[in-house]
Amino acid sequence: MNSGPERNVVPTVREVAELAGVSPMTVSRTLSGGKYVRPEVQQRVMDAVATLGYHRNENARSIRPGHRSDLIGVAITNLANPYYGNFALGVEEVAAQHGRRMLLGNTGEQVAREKQLVQDFVGRQVEGLIVVPTGAAADHLRPARLGDIPLVLASRTVRGLKADTVLIDDISGAYESTKRILEAGHTRVAFLGNVISVATASRRYEGFCQALSEFGLEPDPELIMRGQQDAADAQKAMEALLDLADPPTAVFSTNNRNTIGALEAIGQRRLRSAAPPPPTLIAFDDVELAHLMQVPLLVVSHDPKELGAQAARMLFERLDGAKITKKPRRVELPVVVGDILGAPAPNRRAAR
Q: Are the CB atoms for 219 and 191 separated by under 8 Å?
């Protein structure tokens, strides 16, 4: 029996509302996160959506006056770094809880790309921004450029820019880990860090220097390597340290990219039969499988996923009108300084 022509038109919000027995506004609220809609009503709406096969026209919806895009923009500095993959997962989980989706972009530590990416996000009418800043400029992140779009800075600050910010306790982590190495008897401690304009590098160097000063030591220019932005540069810097007539017995590495480069240099050196014992490595940020490298190691660990989640929570507190101070807020997440694993005796001199 023929019951009539097949349905070939796209279902509408009104049809979903009729099937669920609610108003079109209730359908819209349910599909935008369910705020002010009772759970049982939300379920009726979602059942109707599934029955009819309804899909929102996001492009049309986003340009209608009074309607939000349900998008947040997230700018990170290195998409290839697993650290930022976990950071993005933390943002995404919190965004999903609030009925929003994430647009993710990579700046490659280049301020020009950061400016363009932020401009693209604003053009797509994102509701809010989370940015791991390059630190080199701030004009494109000021309210005069962003309008009423709230901004949260993550992992780093930008000089002269006031915004909600979530950081790692960089200074304390660097201080405590360096102090532990000094207490173990090391006096020649090198520093592997990225460019000075990156706030995390400067903060971790500050903590490093505080520990040295407490033990009556000053940073030795011969042992300070700054400016490495990737593992390849860090490997070259580490090789230079190992080639010194009096190489360091310990090395502070400011992030996982520097640690990977340092491990590569040490590993290549250990392939030589006459290679001396490797220096103890302080690794700020976890590095997968680093413990298998048979290098004396002290890890300063923290959770990048929680960093992303905290940044997102701060953003949605602004978006959802929570009763919070209008002044920019700053949160510092704790770090955990581990034990020194497999450390050799300090102050050895390399076999030449």
A: yes
| Amino acid (1-letter code) at residue 237 | A
Per-residue pLDDT at 295 exceeds 90:
no
Whether the per-residue pLDDT at 345 is higher than 70: the answer is no
Token pair listed for 52 = 């009819």
Task: Evaluate whether residue 350 is within a structural domain.
Answer: no
Task: Compute the distance between CA of residue 194 and CA of residue 199 in angstroms, rounded to an integer.
Answer: 10
Residue tagged 């939300």 (tokens):
42
User: What is d(CA 178, CA 37) in angstroms, rounded to the nearest whole number?
Assistant: 53
User: Do 48 and 91 have their domain in common?
Assistant: no
Phi, psi (degrees; rounded to nearest 5) at 67 = -110, 140
- Indicate if the pLDDT at residue 261 is higher than 90: yes
Helix (H) or strand (E) holding 94: helix 82-97
Using CA of residue 307, residue 311, residue 312, residue 317, what is the dihedral sign? positive
For 202, list phi and psi in degrees, rounded to 5.
Answer: -65, -40
Q: Against a cut of 0.85, is the pTM above it? A: no
Which residue segment(s) compose the domain that 209 sits in?
A: 170-301
What does the block give as tokens for 161? 């820019």
